[in-house]
Amino acid sequence: MKIYGDGISGNCLKVKWVCDVLALPYEWIEVDILKGESRTHEFLKLNAGGQVPTVVLDDGRALAQSNAIIRYLARGSDLIPTDAYDAARMDEWLFWEQYSHEPYIAVCRFQVKYQGKPASELDPEKIKRGYAALARMEHQLAASRYLVGERFSLADVALLAYTRLAHEGGFHLDGYASLRRWIGEAERSLGLPPAR
Fold this sequence. Notes:
The chain is α+β, with helices and mostly antiparallel strands. The protein contains seven helices and four strands, in the order E-H-E-H-E-E-H-H-H-H-H. The chain is 52% helix and 7% strand.
């Protein structure tokens, strides 16, 4: 399997982390989005949307969208709950991550860290919605060890990617004790060093 991804992208790292924790063999092909490498003619043949990550499976079929990819790769593993309701709750978090978390936390991070925008100049609505997303996670994690109860799942992988780096987008986690506890536990579950 080949993973076309950019090492600065949490969406790409999710795919790498799932492969690493499940010991799935892959070849990582770095695609620099800042240089427009996901917009080349060759890349657009793999993914017409011009987005990373994109995986090419051993049989040559391509698959895009980070949460669809990790859902596919983790099938039959402990990262997906066997209970149908818990699996649906995991999917609920996966959908929520892309719609209500990533557009705020990840976008602010990209603007500050990679575009050099001062945090004071970020869209106040993005900041407000980013903090709302962090508060929702804090509320859940005050009640359970992980996002779907007491077992680590793909929901945790998906939401860890940008939450652990929220500070790079100007978000402060001082008032989020459960969230900070979860970040440490999720990083250890994936064998990651603590985010700086």
